[in-house]
Amino acid sequence: MREEQIRRMVSEGRISPREGERLLEALKRSRSGEANRDSARRSGKNRGGGRRIYIALAVIVSLLVTIGLALLFFTLRESETAGDLFKKGEQAFAEGEYEKAIDCYQAGLEKEPSSSAGYNLLGMAYRFLYHGTGSSRYRQEEIEAFEKAIELDPNNMMPLVNLGFTLYYQGDKGEAALYLEKALEVYPDHPDRVGIEEMIREADLQ
Protein backbone atom coordinates (compact mmCIF):
# COMPACT_ATOMS: atom_id res chain seq x y z
CA MET A 1 0.00 0.00 0.00
CA ARG A 2 1.31 3.41 -0.96
CA GLU A 3 1.26 6.64 1.01
CA GLU A 4 -1.11 8.40 -1.45
CA GLN A 5 -3.58 5.52 -1.19
CA ILE A 6 -3.69 5.87 2.59
CA ARG A 7 -4.23 9.64 2.37
CA ARG A 8 -7.01 9.14 -0.19
CA MET A 9 -8.75 6.64 2.09
CA VAL A 10 -8.58 9.16 4.94
CA SER A 11 -9.94 11.96 2.76
CA GLU A 12 -12.77 9.74 1.51
CA GLY A 13 -13.68 8.81 5.08
CA ARG A 14 -13.03 5.12 4.60
CA ILE A 15 -10.58 5.15 7.55
CA SER A 16 -10.17 7.56 10.42
CA PRO A 17 -7.31 10.08 10.48
CA ARG A 18 -5.78 8.25 13.45
CA GLU A 19 -5.92 4.95 11.57
CA GLY A 20 -4.36 6.68 8.60
CA GLU A 21 -1.47 7.94 10.75
CA ARG A 22 -0.85 4.43 12.08
CA LEU A 23 -0.78 3.05 8.55
CA LEU A 24 1.61 5.79 7.39
CA GLU A 25 3.90 5.11 10.35
CA ALA A 26 3.84 1.39 9.64
CA LEU A 27 4.66 2.11 5.99
CA LYS A 28 7.65 4.23 7.01
CA ARG A 29 8.95 1.51 9.33
CA SER A 30 8.57 -1.07 6.58
CA ARG A 31 10.51 1.07 4.14
CA SER A 32 13.21 1.73 6.76
CA GLY A 33 13.61 -2.02 7.41
CA GLU A 34 13.98 -2.78 3.72
CA ALA A 35 16.53 -0.02 3.39
CA ASN A 36 18.51 -1.45 6.31
CA ARG A 37 18.39 -4.94 4.84
CA ASP A 38 19.58 -3.63 1.48
CA SER A 39 22.36 -1.77 3.20
CA ALA A 40 23.35 -4.87 5.15
CA ARG A 41 23.38 -6.96 1.98
CA ARG A 42 25.56 -4.40 0.22
CA SER A 43 27.84 -4.18 3.25
CA GLY A 44 28.10 -7.97 3.41
CA LYS A 45 29.01 -8.13 -0.23
CA ASN A 46 31.63 -5.46 0.29
CA ARG A 47 33.05 -7.26 3.30
CA GLY A 48 33.09 -10.56 1.42
CA GLY A 49 34.90 -8.93 -1.46
CA GLY A 50 37.30 -7.31 0.97
CA ARG A 51 38.08 -10.65 2.60
CA ARG A 52 38.78 -12.24 -0.75
CA ILE A 53 41.11 -9.41 -1.68
CA TYR A 54 42.85 -9.68 1.69
CA ILE A 55 43.35 -13.44 1.28
CA ALA A 56 44.68 -12.98 -2.26
CA LEU A 57 47.10 -10.30 -1.07
CA ALA A 58 48.23 -12.50 1.82
CA VAL A 59 48.96 -15.37 -0.58
CA ILE A 60 50.90 -13.08 -2.91
CA VAL A 61 52.93 -11.62 -0.04
CA SER A 62 53.69 -15.13 1.26
CA LEU A 63 54.90 -16.23 -2.17
CA LEU A 64 57.05 -13.13 -2.55
CA VAL A 65 58.63 -13.69 0.86
CA THR A 66 59.34 -17.34 0.03
CA ILE A 67 60.89 -16.44 -3.31
CA GLY A 68 62.89 -13.66 -1.70
CA LEU A 69 64.30 -15.95 0.98
CA ALA A 70 65.20 -18.57 -1.63
CA LEU A 71 67.00 -15.97 -3.73
CA LEU A 72 68.80 -14.65 -0.66
CA PHE A 73 69.94 -18.16 0.33
CA PHE A 74 71.10 -18.84 -3.24
CA THR A 75 72.96 -15.52 -3.40
CA LEU A 76 74.67 -16.11 -0.06
CA ARG A 77 75.61 -19.66 -1.02
CA GLU A 78 76.98 -18.47 -4.36
CA SER A 79 79.08 -15.78 -2.66
CA GLU A 80 80.70 -18.32 -0.29
CA THR A 81 84.05 -19.79 -1.28
CA ALA A 82 84.93 -23.46 -1.05
CA GLY A 83 87.01 -22.64 2.01
CA ASP A 84 84.04 -20.93 3.66
CA LEU A 85 81.87 -23.98 3.05
CA PHE A 86 84.52 -26.39 4.33
CA LYS A 87 84.79 -24.32 7.54
CA LYS A 88 81.01 -24.38 7.96
CA GLY A 89 81.14 -28.13 7.47
CA GLU A 90 83.85 -28.51 10.11
CA GLN A 91 81.76 -26.47 12.54
CA ALA A 92 78.72 -28.67 11.89
CA PHE A 93 80.90 -31.77 12.25
CA ALA A 94 82.21 -30.54 15.62
CA GLU A 95 78.60 -30.10 16.76
CA GLY A 96 77.69 -33.64 15.70
CA GLU A 97 75.55 -32.47 12.77
CA TYR A 98 77.08 -34.87 10.26
CA GLU A 99 74.43 -34.60 7.56
CA LYS A 100 74.74 -30.81 7.61
CA ALA A 101 78.52 -31.18 7.45
CA ILE A 102 78.17 -33.42 4.40
CA ASP A 103 75.96 -30.85 2.68
CA CYS A 104 78.57 -28.14 3.31
CA TYR A 105 81.47 -30.32 2.14
CA GLN A 106 79.63 -31.31 -1.02
CA ALA A 107 78.78 -27.68 -1.75
CA GLY A 108 82.43 -26.77 -1.27
CA LEU A 109 83.52 -29.59 -3.58
CA GLU A 110 81.17 -28.31 -6.26
CA LYS A 111 83.21 -25.09 -6.20
CA GLU A 112 86.55 -26.83 -5.83
CA PRO A 113 86.22 -30.39 -7.17
CA SER A 114 89.99 -30.98 -7.10
CA SER A 115 90.26 -30.56 -3.33
CA SER A 116 91.79 -33.69 -1.82
CA ALA A 117 91.36 -32.20 1.66
CA GLY A 118 87.68 -31.59 0.96
CA TYR A 119 87.09 -35.22 0.04
CA ASN A 120 88.96 -36.34 3.16
CA LEU A 121 86.65 -34.18 5.29
CA LEU A 122 83.66 -35.64 3.47
CA GLY A 123 84.90 -39.16 4.17
CA MET A 124 85.22 -38.40 7.88
CA ALA A 125 81.66 -37.08 8.04
CA TYR A 126 80.39 -40.24 6.36
CA ARG A 127 82.44 -42.33 8.82
CA PHE A 128 80.74 -40.78 11.83
CA LEU A 129 77.35 -40.96 10.16
CA TYR A 130 77.95 -44.66 9.54
CA HIS A 131 78.86 -45.26 13.19
CA GLY A 132 75.75 -43.36 14.24
CA THR A 133 73.34 -45.21 11.97
CA GLY A 134 75.01 -48.49 11.04
CA SER A 135 73.98 -47.97 7.41
CA SER A 136 76.36 -49.73 5.01
CA ARG A 137 75.57 -47.07 2.42
CA TYR A 138 77.41 -44.48 4.51
CA ARG A 139 80.38 -46.83 4.91
CA GLN A 140 80.62 -47.14 1.14
CA GLU A 141 80.33 -43.36 0.73
CA GLU A 142 83.14 -42.98 3.28
CA ILE A 143 85.46 -45.32 1.39
CA GLU A 144 84.73 -43.68 -1.96
CA ALA A 145 85.43 -40.22 -0.54
CA PHE A 146 88.81 -41.31 0.84
CA GLU A 147 89.66 -43.03 -2.45
CA LYS A 148 88.83 -39.84 -4.35
CA ALA A 149 90.99 -37.80 -1.97
CA ILE A 150 93.93 -40.14 -2.63
CA GLU A 151 93.29 -40.08 -6.38
CA LEU A 152 93.50 -36.28 -6.35
CA ASP A 153 96.62 -36.25 -4.17
CA PRO A 154 98.40 -39.60 -3.72
CA ASN A 155 100.74 -38.02 -1.15
CA ASN A 156 98.00 -36.70 1.13
CA MET A 157 98.76 -38.58 4.32
CA MET A 158 95.37 -38.04 5.98
CA PRO A 159 93.13 -40.00 3.57
CA LEU A 160 95.83 -42.69 3.30
CA VAL A 161 95.66 -43.26 7.06
CA ASN A 162 91.89 -42.88 7.21
CA LEU A 163 91.22 -45.34 4.41
CA GLY A 164 93.80 -47.73 5.87
CA PHE A 165 92.06 -47.67 9.25
CA THR A 166 88.62 -48.15 7.69
CA LEU A 167 89.73 -51.16 5.66
CA TYR A 168 91.65 -52.63 8.59
CA TYR A 169 88.73 -52.53 10.99
CA GLN A 170 86.31 -53.99 8.48
CA GLY A 171 88.64 -56.94 8.00
CA ASP A 172 90.47 -56.00 4.78
CA LYS A 173 93.84 -55.91 6.56
CA GLY A 174 95.97 -56.76 3.55
CA GLU A 175 94.60 -53.87 1.50
CA ALA A 176 94.71 -51.62 4.54
CA ALA A 177 98.44 -52.27 4.95
CA LEU A 178 99.14 -50.86 1.48
CA TYR A 179 97.61 -47.51 2.38
CA LEU A 180 99.19 -47.44 5.83
CA GLU A 181 102.66 -48.18 4.44
CA LYS A 182 102.23 -45.38 1.92
CA ALA A 183 101.13 -43.03 4.70
CA LEU A 184 104.32 -43.73 6.70
CA GLU A 185 106.39 -43.34 3.58
CA VAL A 186 104.87 -39.90 3.00
CA TYR A 187 104.99 -38.90 6.67
CA PRO A 188 107.58 -40.94 8.59
CA ASP A 189 107.09 -38.89 11.76
CA HIS A 190 103.42 -39.73 12.13
CA PRO A 191 102.53 -39.55 15.85
CA ASP A 192 100.78 -42.95 15.64
CA ARG A 193 103.65 -44.58 13.77
CA VAL A 194 104.14 -47.37 16.33
CA GLY A 195 100.48 -48.35 16.26
CA ILE A 196 100.34 -48.18 12.46
CA GLU A 197 103.42 -50.39 12.13
CA GLU A 198 101.80 -52.92 14.45
CA MET A 199 98.71 -52.96 12.21
CA ILE A 200 100.93 -53.52 9.16
CA ARG A 201 102.77 -56.42 10.85
CA GLU A 202 99.48 -58.01 11.81
CA ALA A 203 98.33 -57.78 8.20
CA ASP A 204 101.58 -59.40 7.01
CA LEU A 205 101.02 -62.36 9.33
CA GLN A 206 97.74 -63.25 7.66
Question: What this model shows, in words?
Answer:
The chain is built from 9 helices and no strands. By secondary structure, it is mainly α. It folds into 2 domains: 3-76; 81-205, Serine Threonine Protein Phosphatase 5, Tetratricopeptide repeat (Alpha Horseshoe). Helix 1 (3-11) runs antiparallel to helix 2, helix 4 packs antiparallel against helix 5 and helix 8 (173-186) runs antiparallel to helix 9 (193-205).
Which properties best describe this structure?
206 residues; mainly alpha; Serine Threonine Protein Phosphatase 5, Tetratricopeptide repeat; 2 domains; 9 helices; 84% helix
Question: Segments where pLDDT lies below 50 for 5+ residues?
Answer: none
CATH class of the largest domain: Mainly Alpha
- Structural class label: mainly alpha
Write the CATH architecture name of the largest domain: Alpha Horseshoe
Shape category: rod-shaped
How large is the count of helical segments? 9
State the CATH superfamily name of the largest domain.
Tetratricopeptide repeat domain
Strand content: under 5%
Mean pLDDT: 85
The total count of strands amounts to 0
Order of helices and strands: HHHHHHHHH
The CATH topology of the largest domain is given as Serine Threonine Protein Phosphatase 5, Tetratricopeptide repeat
Number of domains: 2
Q: Tell me about the largest β-sheet.
A: none
Helix content: over 70%
> What is the gyration radius calculated from CA atoms?
42 Å
Distance between the termini: 117 Å
